[in-house]
Design brief:
- The complex is a heterodimer.
- By secondary structure, chain A is an alpha+beta fold.
- Chain A is globular.
- The N and C termini of chain A lie far apart (about 60 Å).
- In chain A, the strands form six sheets. In chain A, strands 14-18-13-17-15-16 form a six-stranded mixed β-sheet, with helices on both faces. A four-stranded mixed β-sheet of chain A has the order 1-10-9-8, with helices on one face. In chain A, strands 4-5-7-6 form a four-stranded antiparallel β-sheet, with helices on one face.
- In chain A, helix 9 packs antiparallel against helix 11, helix 10 runs antiparallel to helix 12 and helix 15 runs antiparallel to helix 16.
- Chain B is an all-alpha fold.
- Helices cover about 75% and strands about 0% of the residues of chain B.
- Chain B contains 13 helices and no strands.
- In chain B, helix 1 packs antiparallel against helix 13.
- In chain B, about 35% of the residues are buried.
- The chains are: A alpha+beta, B mainly alpha.
- At the A-B interface, helix 1, helix 7 and helix 13 of A face helix 2, helix 4, helix 5 and helix 6 of B.
């Protein structure tokens, strides 16, 4: 026995040494202003982590944020977002005219613009693309983004068979006329969205489903895709035929498809990638915030909320819903748990729309919540039926649900349980109303509050909690016909007030767009849609001594 | 011998058919489908999407079509990544997993065999205890702890190796060690146990009596005899290593095949689930066959019919 003991000693020592080495390393690193290595790449190259492997890079078919980021490099819409304030700027169209009733848009395309294979880019390409995305046979899941176009919806669901009845036509090679079914003041933002980007008819028709293969794909955007390996990366070079190629500063871009957020953070820390636009592990936030200059957390146009199935008792009682909404402290969730830039929200439309002001929602107020619950017939939680929160499997959702669960137990003396399901089962249960309360989220498709208020219309497929309020639907319809902007915002604000009165949703917080960006990556600007054009991005080799980043630069 | 191989191959056909059938129907029991997303899809669009991929037909019809395509080695398009076929996904992912698996195996052999030999030679000595202590740690520490630990020390503190991605030699080092460690310690233990037995044998004593040097005795005489159980361990180990490891592939962001086993099930990517399961089944059947054949060469007393 004695002998054994003495033999184990060296192992114990080496083990402790290893641990000390790790501790020391962590200690040494924390002195830096930046997270990990700061070492610019050789050449005008940007390496960033795009996140989970995109499903589609075809602009007509894509649905995910990661898909859109790749497509946005290869293609360009009629308009592009100005990154700083999200106002639409000229893209493939150099100018446009809008009728006073906001229903007729005429776009003038750049003469001489070509696809990356030299084929001319004309208004007919846009007609082809928009017909394709709305064609029922294409079965695009995001086609509803084009329902604003006259007959768009009817054609998409098969009620109108003739594609020429769609409100889009090429007056000549360089003039595109778009007729809308309603006044849409934000249509020029929609034309910057990926779903409105053109696809090359001559390539799509030739290669079918395989046209997005790097050996076939042709685009009209600033970069050209040269290599793609599933779950690994996309490689781009500058597109020399892009109309503003001279303005593009990067020669190459690599977009990695690393879907594990700790691995992504590791790659950033080791200096293998220069930018991680999201995918920051939430357990790093407490440590990183305020310590590193390369972490950014601006607000993001997205809302985290609990959908309420209002057909089930006790949640069919509005008093109960109000009590629940007032019975937990959102600041505890954003401030103590998530600790990035999230903003507590008791209203449904996130903060960040300049001309829109959400009405006040049900804020944290435990005594009032307890009173409402008593009024609903459950004094001090007595007799409160069992209620379950449905979440999809992810540790953050669980942490948030547990915090809410604990606060409801403390403030209202009610016990709720948590049920977690993997993604596909969760979606199925939500769509079939097989839940009491469900974690839900919505991210803006375009910078207008209607992207949120439309969601709760009675016939909207995303409104899956059984709530249907004719007054609300009337207001949403009224807002659609209103060409006057400030008047439209007023109507939407009133609609949201109604929503916050009925509470078929319990808002929790407004998202933040968290990311890490090396100090030498310049020309990336923060905005509420977290959309970034890489055209103007450049690598600053004099980052230590040169001009510092401006305030809105990330 | 050839008859034996042919017989085994023919017998494996109903096995594969059974696996294909079971997987096909079990998979469809899971709720949801491959095209759902958080944003609701109009029912008309969903119907068109289902029709586009033939998912609107009855299950027996789909099953029949699947089997017909399978006969032509066509595993169909992925539903989640419709611009890629399952054949392409396997064709891209498998070589990476194979590369990782073989690198891990080489590491395991290079570490395991010498460690086992040294332990046996210095039996009950300090080196033996130290080696077997490390072996114990190697067995006890799972890959999801080993990987991040190696990254912390060698990538984020010493900056010797990148913490992920795949392609260069430096990128291969840490994942190979992570994946190979468990195999290395098994091999070390197997080698040590066999060596201890072999070193007691008369012919080793004879060799020593002849005055041969220690190295020559170990290398020429003892090791040969001790390798048999190691080789039989390698058969299933290779099949196991070649099909990839979900944990190591996630931690090190390696674009291998292993992650598809899990990811495709979650995304209800039916064709990819089928493809990876069948591919793995065929690989296992072949690996077992190779081992059985090798046995006969190594030990002529085993006879097959």
């Amino acid at each position: 026995m004695r002998g054994h003991l003495s033999h184990r000693l060296p192992q114990a020592i080496s083990g402790s040494l290893l641990f000390l080495a790790v501790l020391c390393a962590a200690g040494c690193q924390s002195r830096s202003e930046y997270f990990g290595k700061v070492d610019p790449p050789a050449g005008n190259v940007l390496r960033f982590n795009n996140g989970v492997e995109p499903e589609y890079i075809d602009p007509n078919l894509l649905a995910g944020v990661q898909d859109a980021r790749i497509a946005g490099m290869i293609f360009e819409g009629l308009t592009v977002y100005d990154e700083r304030d999200l106002h639409p700027a000229p893209g493939a169209a150099e100018r446009w005219e809008v009728s006073s009733d906001l229903t007729l848009y005429t776009f003038h395309l750049r003469k001489g613009a070509v696809w990356s294979d030299g084929h001319p880019l004309t208004a007919h390409d846009f007609v082809y693309s928009w017909r394709r995305i709305l064609d029922p046979k294409t079965a695009s899941r995001y086609a509803s983004m084009l329902y604003y176009i006259e007959n768009g919806e009817a054609f998409n669901v098969g009620k109108v068979k003739d594609a020429s009845k769609l409100g889009v036509r090429a007056l000549d090679d360089y003039t595109l006329e778009v007729k809308l079914r309603q006044p849409v003041s934000y249509f020029l933002s929609l034309t910057a969205h990926e779903t409105y980007m053109p696809v090359p008819a001559h390539v799509v028709e030739r290669y079918g489903d395989r046209w997005t293969d790097p050996s076939h794909i042709v685009g009209n955007g600033p970069f050209q895709l040269v290599e793609h390996r599933t779950n690994d990366k996309f490689e781009f070079i500058r597109n020399p035929r892009y109309w503003n190629s001279a303005g593009v500063k990067l020669d190459r871009v690599t977009a990695y498809s690393v879907d594990d957020n700790h691995t992504a953070a590791n790659l950033y820390e080791a200096g293998v990638v220069d930018w991680v636009p999201d995918y920051i592990p939430s357990d790093y936030m407490g440590y990183m915030r305020g310590r590193f200059k390369d972490l950014y957390t601006p607000p993001y146009l997205g809302i985290y909320y609990y959908a309420v199935n209002i057909t089930r008792p006790p949640l069919n009682n509005p008093l109960v819903r109000r009590a629940l909404a007032m019975g937990f402290d959102r600041r505890a969730i954003t401030g103590d748990l998530l600790r990035a830039g999230q903003i507590p929200a008791s209203h449904f439309v996130p903060v960040g729309f300049p001309n829109y002001h959400s009405p006040p929602g049900p804020d944290y107020n435990p005594p009032e919540a307890a009173r409402l619950l008593a009024e609903a017939g459950y004094p001090n939680g007595a007799g409160f039926p069992s209620v379950t929160i449905l979440i999809n499997t992810l540790s953050e959702h669980r942490k948030i649900a547990e915090a809410v669960q604990e606060m409801w137990a403390k403030n209202l003396n009610i016990q709720v349980s948590i049920r977690n399901e993997e993604w596909a089962s969760y979606l199925k249960d939500r769509r079939s109303m097989n839940y009491d309360l469900a974690r839900a989220a919505w991210i803006a498709d375009y910078p207008d509050p209607s992207t949120f208020t439309d969601l709760m219309e009675g016939n909207n497929g995303n409104n899956d909690g059984g709530w249907k309020n004719p007054g609300y639907d009337r207001m949403i319809a009224l807002a659609r016909q209103q060409p006057e902007e400030s008047r439209r915002m007023e109507i939407l604000e009133k609609a949201e007030a109604l929503l916050l009165h009925d509470l078929p949703v319990i808002p929790v917080y407004t998202y933040s767009a968290d990311g890490l960006i090396k100090p030498y990556v310049r020309g990336v600007y923060g905005n509420a849609l977290d959309r970034h054009a890489l055209n103007r991005v450049w690598i600053d080799r004099q980052w230590k001594t040169g001009r510092p980043k401006s305030g809105d630069e990330l | 011998m050839i008859r034996f191989i042919l017989r085994r191959l023919v017998l494996s056909i109903p096995v594969i058919f059974l696996i294909a059938t079971t997987t096909f129907f079990i998979m469809r029991l899971a709720p949801g489908g491959p095209f759902q997303m958080e944003k609701a899809i109009p029912p008309e669009i969903m119907a068109n999407l289902q029709a586009k991929y033939g998912l609107d037909q009855s299950l027996p019809v789909q099953y029949g079509r699947y089997l017909r395509n399978l006969l032509h080695f066509d595993l169909g398009p992925s539903y989640k990544f419709p611009d890629r076929t399952v054949n392409r996904i396997i064709g891209e992912g498998f070589p990476v997993s194979l590369e990782l698996g073989m690198a891990a195996l080489i590491f395991a052999l290079l570490l395991g065999i010498p460690a086992g030999v040294i332990s046996a030679v210095k039996h009950r000595g300090f080196v033996d205890h130290l080696t077997m202590g490390i072996v114990l740690i190697g067995i006890s520490v799972p890959t999801f702890v080993m990987g991040p630990l190696l990254i912390l020390v060698f990538s984020l503190t010493l900056f010797w190796f990148p913490p992920g991605l795949w392609g260069t030699f430096r990128q291969m080092v840490l994942p190979s060690i992570t994946l190979g460690m468990l195999y290395a310690v098994y091999i070390a233990r197997l080698t040590r146990a066999e060596m201890l037995e072999v070193l007691q044998q008369d012919y080793i004593r004879t060799a020593r009596a002849k005055g041969l040097g220690q190295f020559r005795i170990l290398w020429k005489h003892a090791l040969n005899g001790a390798m048999l159980p190691v080789v039989s361990f390698l058969g299933p180990a290779i099949a196991d290593l070649a099909t990839g490891s979900i944990v190591v592939e996630k931690v090190f962001a390696i674009p291998g095949l292993g992650r598809f086993f899990v990811d495709s099930a979650f995304s209800r990517d039916y064709t990819v689930v089928m493809g990876t399961v069948l591919f793995y089944a065929v690989l296992l059947i072949l690996a077992n066959l190779v081992v059985d054949v090798l046995y006969q060469f190594m030990d002529p007393t085993i006879e097959y019919r």
